[in-house]
Amino acid sequence: MTDTDTQHHRKIKSFVLRAGRMTTGQQRGWDVIFPHQGLKLENGALDIENTFGRKAPLVVEIGFGMGLSLVEMAGNELDKDFIGIEVHRPGVGSLMNEADKAGLSNLRAYCDDAVEVLRQCIPDNSISRMQVYFPDPWHKKRHNKRRLIQPEFVASILPKMKPGGVLHLATDWENYAEQMMEVMSAAEGWENQAGENQYAPRPDFRPLTKFEKRGQRLGHGVWDLLFEKK
């Protein structure tokens, strides 16, 4: 197989690895908390009720960064269980550390490729809300094909959602927002909660990050899309 063939057959991934050192808190989260509160791809299909010790609506977030907004959400919605999926260890360590400091028992995390976690670990008809906030925009046109929100990925999500479950996307790149709207509007089995081709106002459950506040001051837009499984 040639290099060109390899590129064409490369499977979609939810991430690009970037190296980074850990702070003391991140290292603590990774070394001390993650072994007890973390989830692992190699353990296979997840028993959600057993993991959290209860039956509750499940929220899954892909690419939570340093995890501060996800910890805030989990603290604000204690009636729900949260699973974050992030490939960067410093971010996972940060999330685990902050969740432990906040005393949260309704938050777990994977440190792996979200595409594989969803495929191998998350049961069908289990997710009440899935969140993908500010994914890498791959803003150069020749790199747009690397964006996560593509028809193949969206189709793979649908079986994992409960009927009425919501996929919530957010981006600060207008071109990516337009692509998201195009992909989601054409996808089978989804309905735009805001109406056809309409973006939604930021829902109260999505925290306004420092990054987003700065963008607002500079006049940058943010686009939210909420699509419900029919």
TrEMBL record:
Binding-site list for substrate: K140, D172, T209, K210, F211, E212
Pathway this chain belongs to: tRNA modification; N(7)-methylguanine-tRNA biosynthesis
Region (Interaction with RNA): 142-147
The protein's Enzyme Commission number: 2.1.1.33
Gene Ontology molecular function: any one: tRNA (guanine(46)-N7)-methyltransferase activity
Domain of life from the UniProt record: Bacteria
Binding site for S-adenosyl-L-methionine: E61, E86, D113, D136
Database matches in InterPro entries: SAM-dependent_MTases_sf, tRNA_(Gua-N-7)_MeTrfase_Trmb, tRNA_methyltr_TrmB_bact
Enzyme class: transferase
Keywords recorded for this protein, A-Z: Methyltransferase, S-adenosyl-L-methionine, Transferase, tRNA processing
Recorded catalytic activity of this chain's protein: guanosine(46) in tRNA + S-adenosyl-L-methionine = N(7)-methylguanosine(46) in tRNA + S-adenosyl-L-homocysteine
Function: Catalyzes the formation of N(7)-methylguanine at position 46 (m7G46) in tRNA.
HAMAP family for this protein: tRNA_methyltr_TrmB
Similarity comment text for this entry: Belongs to the class I-like SAM-binding methyltransferase superfamily. TrmB family.
Protein's UniProt name: tRNA (guanine-N(7)-)-methyltransferase
Organism of origin: Parendozoicomonas callyspongiae
Underlying gene: trmB
